[in-house]
Structure formats: structure tokens, C-alpha cells
Amino acid sequence: MGSVHTLSFYRSIGHSSDRNNSNAVARDAMNTKKAAIVLNMPESLNRFFCGLQWSAQFRAFLIILSFSFNPFAQAADQALLEKELTDKGLVWLEAEGQKFIGLWEEERSGSAVGALLILHAAGQTPDWPDTIHPLRSSVIQHGWATLSIELPLANSELDTPQHINARVQSALTFLEGKGQLNLAFVAFGESAEAAYTWVANAIENNPPADDATGPIVAGSFRALIIVSARAIVLKPTMTLPTLDVYFDEHYLDIKEVKERRTLARKYRLPFYHQVKLLSPYMTETGEENALVRRIRGFLNKYAKGVEVGK
């Protein structure tokens, strides 16, 4: 495949509605500043990618990918991110003096029921195309606002539980400022451990009454959804409604999933649900895949709030 080189691809930031018009594309190429995305990639893929016409979604995804995986270019990329993504919900948050990306979307149904706080998996971005993007696109049509935040690069100096917790707290402060007090936590891959620990600690710090029988809350969280979770050890006190989704694609999907299932039975966790799904697929049309449908069903059952004043 050839040696690995730094690949720069330049794509005009025009309106996606013009993409089928060759004259419009040429005009954009001449008159519009180009978006520079720098990735390390085998040279043989260079010609392939340079020939693609990016959709608006994929252009945005590449820009976030560049920002997330190239920390040395982050300061220079901020203006590019703001130009391309401000109208797509880009917000800048801060934790321990470090700025990071959040993607915020208001619900669009007119009947608000709450908000999702979303954490991506290691090696992914806040709008990962086959999981987070379809979820964000769907739930906003059903009363759920979403805030998906950028997490530190794996094994970087910021990749610590303390800093990740600081980012979660920054996100919660942002959501509170938006009047969002009915929340569900959605976390993918390695970040699921941080989400689980957060809500488990919230419950331990404010335990339910001894005679409580129904679903409980953890701070503002009414449900936890973990997808392809790693390194989670269930606790008997963590009785928040939890949906544990796995795809059986990794050896840990067998080992760790079985361990969690065993502990859930041992602790008699009544609101813990584990489900196996086929791996989700990318969608650019807002079409729901099986993962999104399962998450929406769980939210409707356990976390749907009522808009104040209605």
C-alpha cells in the first residue's frame, strides 16, 4: 500500500444543495476558502479520497476528526471548525483550563422531554458516523436535545479520570444553563466506564430511601445507556435504569458481557437490561438503525420527562 504520508485534502465549504451542480462546485473551488483536513494515511488512499465529493455530514466529520487526532494543529483548526460547524451546533466548553468541543442540538419536535449527554469511544469523535450521528439526528425529532462532547486522546496527558470528570461537569453546567434537568447518559466503548462511575458515585452520595422500589435518579440522570462498554464492574447500589448494548464483535464482548450479566443477576438489579444487536451502519439521511431504535425505546420507558408548563 505504500508508505504513510501526511495527507492534506482540500474541499470547498459550499452549500450542500449545490453539490449536484458542476458549475457551482467549480465556483466554490475558485471563490471559497478551502477546508484543510490533515490525516496520516497510506499514500495509495490519497488519490481515492481526493476524488470524493464530500457530503456536508462527512465534511463536518472529517474536520472534527482532524481536530481530535492532531493536537498540535488544534489552535489553528479552531477558526476552521467555527466556520464549518457553528450552524451545526458547535460549542466550546472548558475544563481545567482546556477548551474542548461540544456538539449541541435543540430538540425539534416542540414537545421537549429531556437531553442526552453523549461520550464517544476512544479513537472516535463526538459525531461518529455509524453510531452517534444517527442517534443525534433521530432523537431531536422526538423531544430529546443532545450534547455530545469531545474526550481526550487515549493515553494523552489529559486522559485521566479526573480530567474526564471535569469535562462531564462542564457539560452538565452547560445543560443546566439550557434548562435541561431531565438527562440520560449515553456512552460508547471505553468512555462507558467514566459514565457508569459518575452515576454510581452520584447514587452513593445521595442514596435512595430503603423502601424505594421504582426507578431512581442519579443527580439529573434518569437513565444510563452504555454501548460496547469496557472495564465496567457492576455495583449493587447502581440501580439507575441501565441499557447495556453489545455487538459480539470483540473477544471482550463475550468475557465482560458475561461478567456483567452474572453480577446483574447476583445483585438482582431490576432495571439493568442487556441486549445484543448487529453492528450499526452509517446513515446520512437520519434513518434509524437498530441501535437508535433500541435506545429510543429505552428512553421512552425510563427517562421521558415532561416539559415544565405543559
Major sheet: arrangement of strands: 3-4-6-5-7-8-9-10
**Backbone structural class:** alpha/beta
CATH superfamily of the largest domain: Alpha/Beta hydrolase fold, catalytic domain
The number of distinct β-strands equals: 10
Which class of the largest domain in CATH terms? Alpha Beta
CATH topology of the largest domain: Rossmann fold
Question: Globular, elongated, flat, extended or rod-shaped: what is the shape?
Answer: globular
Number of domains: 2
Tell me, rounded to a whole number, the average pLDDT.
78
Distance between the termini: 60 Å
What does this structure look like?
- The strands form two sheets. Strands 3-4-6-5-7-8-9-10 form an eight-stranded mixed sheet, with helices on both faces. Strands 1-2 form a two-stranded antiparallel sheet.
- The protein is an alpha/beta fold.
- Helix 3 (56-69) runs antiparallel to helix 4 (74-85) and helix 5 (132-139) packs across helix 9.
- It is built from nine helices and ten strands.
- The protein folds into two domains: 1-83, no CATH class; 89-302, Rossmann fold (3-Layer(aba) Sandwich).
- Strand 9 (242-246), helix 8 and strand 10 form a beta-alpha-beta unit.
